[in-house]
Each structure stands twice: as C-alpha cells, then as structure tokens.
C-alpha cells in the first residue's frame, strides 16, 4: 500500500517523489524503463535549476559527474545575424548561479532517482501503467500495471501523479491532454565528440528548422535538429542520415562536424506544443512535460519539471491530510493555479520566441536588434534562464525595440532598458 504513486521517473517524477518522501509520505515511482536510460532532450539546466538541485542535495554530485557549465546562449538567425546573451551580464537581476549546467540524461536522471530512493521512495522499474482505477464517483484510486514478463497488477493510492512526459498516459486516461494551435516540431537528438564548443550553448535558426548545440561534459556535445513535423517524415527509416544531411547543407556550421564522431544513436521526440486542459483531477495531478511543454528552443523542460515538483508536493501533503476524499480536491486545484501563476509569463515569452523561429523574417529582425543592443540579449537569456521575470521582455517598449531595430530612442529610453525600468 502506498499513499502516492508517481508515474514516470524523470526529473519531474523523481523530484516530486523526493519532496514527498522527505516529508514522510509513502510514495512509489513507476517507470517502464530501467535506469540509467537515455532520453532525447537538450540536457540543459538553467541557472535557477541549480537552486532546486542544491536543495535536494544532489548538485555536488552533478558537478562531480562532469556537468558542463554554460555561460549563456549564442543565437544565429537565418540571415546570419548573431547575438550572444550571457547570464552574468544581466543587469539588475542575479540568478542562483551565473551559469547553467548541461549533463547527459543517462547520468542526471539516475542521480535524481537515486536521491528519491535515498529519501525513502520505492522505485519500481520495468513497469508500464496501462490504465487508471476510479471509484464510483470518478475519483482516481490507483493504476493498473504490467511488468516485462506480462504480469498484471492493480496498485492503489490516494493520489496518482502523472510525470510521464509528452505523451503522458495519465493525462490521456484523464482526458486532459490537449494540443496547442501552433506549428508542431519534432526533435532528433544525438551526441558527437570532436566539436569545438565555447562556453555557451548555440542555436542556429534556419528556414526549415533549427540546430541546437551544447557541451554536456566529457568531451560530448548534445546535437539536436528540430524541424516541423511535416519535414520529420523524411527521417523515417534512417534518422541519422537525415540529421547528417540537414547539417551538411548548412555551410556556416558543417565544417565544425568535419572531424566529429557520432557516439550515440539518433533519438526522436515530439511533436511538441502539447498542454493539459488543467493539471489536476480528483485524485490525480500532472507535473513536468505531462502538464505542459511548448518547444525545446528555450530549454525550459528540466527547470519546469523541478519547479513544478516543488509546487505540487506541498499540495499533495495537504490533500493527504484531508479527512474526506472530496476535501483533497482543493489543494490539487490550488497547485494548478500556482503552476499557472508561476509559468504564465514564461509561456508568453516562449510563444513569442516560437513565432520568431517560425517566421525567418521576424527572426532576422529580432536577431539584428539584439545584436545591436547586447543588454536586451542578456535580458532575454536571463528570462530563459528563469531568474529574470518574464515581464521584463513583455514590456511594450522592449518588444518595440526588438522588432524595430532601426528605431532610435531617446537616451532616457535606452538607459531605461539597460536598468530594466519602464521608460
């Protein structure tokens, strides 16, 4: 018997289980894979993710495991205009650290699951959730699972957490999964050695997608080619050949792969732009990518998973303390409201960036503007780094300068942008 079942052992699930187990809750993680396991991902953690990892007592282990430090992000538009935003150069705001981290998911997820296990969580691997159990009122009361040998079992719990990613079984069984009205993309992710990388991640935006590069430690570079779903069909059968051909057509980046060696298989993930209609139901909640994921361009996934766990765990504890099952709904509803309040601004920024990436002319103009005004580039990277409030780039004055780089403002307006003040 367990009080809480967490479906999925990635960052969202492991962090939620850790928070609950540390508070004395009997919690069980169910994952269909065996750890360590690979996962297609940008593998980037924002500066603020380090705060949560430190609070979990796992940051030092991540550092010792060879995580790369990223000072910021360099972005190239289709016309070649390039800007470079750096976390340490943001004025008026300071993150938990002035660098982000990047580490293979094979290492990171294993560390987080081990941390949850050490806190008291039960971890069951090689177990796939097939259905949710409900009582006569429709309240979730547990899950049906099947193991690798075909054995079936019903597990009961007061709360079931869906932390099972983009195509969440829990979200679909709750009929909460939805699709945003946006261009949906698919990512092809692999790792190379032999690519010369500086101290920052890179995004190369093209007319038919974009390429992400990031040092992930150990001499390895995370390479992600992200294309519209319509183009992704070309990769069926041989995704490695598709990635190689896509990169080879980019004369500005192809030479850097001349002596590079692919060292992991090409894994696909997507389509993105998924969301839940809400992140709770009677007896259940969603966290991480199962609740919301827009696009990997801004690298929000791991931080959102960790922060979502921080928001959810206390509400689950409140729900468990309720004497009547119906009284457990209010804390879970409060979690959903807190989640929306926490991420609403960031979602707006991600959607604006998504529009720019989808329309080359807009991206060209925005990149030129940010190249001319580095302080604006630092601010945007600070927002994607989760330590600058989204309102700083949602100001009308900021957006005007972003889209009209040739507009010359007054000295007072320029200084206001530097100081993060409203002109």
Task: Summarize the structure in short.
With 423 residues, the protein is of the alpha+beta class. It is 37% helix and 25% strand. A hairpin with a 2-residue loop joins strand 15 and strand 16 (209-215).
Strand content: 15-25%
The main β sheet shows up as: 8 strands, mixed
**How confident is the prediction overall: mean pLDDT?**
91
Main structural class: alpha+beta
The fold-level CATH name of the largest domain is: FAD/NAD(P)-binding domain
Query: How many helical elements?
Result: 14
- Class of the largest domain in CATH? Alpha Beta
* Name of the CATH architecture of the largest domain: 3-Layer(bba) Sandwich
Radius of gyration: 22 Å
Q: Kindly state the number of beta strands.
A: 23
- What oligomeric state do the depicted chains represent? single chain
Cα(first) to Cα(last) distance is: 59 Å
Count of structural domains: 3
Question: Low-confidence stretches at least 5 residues in length (pLDDT < 50)?
Answer: 416-423
Q: Which helices and strands appear, and what pairs or packs with what?
A:
Elements: E1 4-7, H1 11-22, E2 27-31, E3 44-45, H2 49-55, H3 59-64, E4 68-70, E5 72-76, E6 82-86, E7 100-102, H4 105-119, E8 122-125, E9 127-134, E10 140-147, E11 152-156, E12 159-162, H5 169-173, E13 177-179, E14 185-193, E15 201-206, E16 209-215, E17 220-228, H6 229-232, H7 239-248, E18 261-262, E19 267-269, E20 274-276, E21 280-281, E22 284-286, E23 292-293, H8 301-321, H9 329-358, H10 360-372, H11 374-384, H12 391-394, H13 396-403, H14 411-419
Helix pairs in contact: 1-4, 1-8, 8-9, 9-10, 10-11
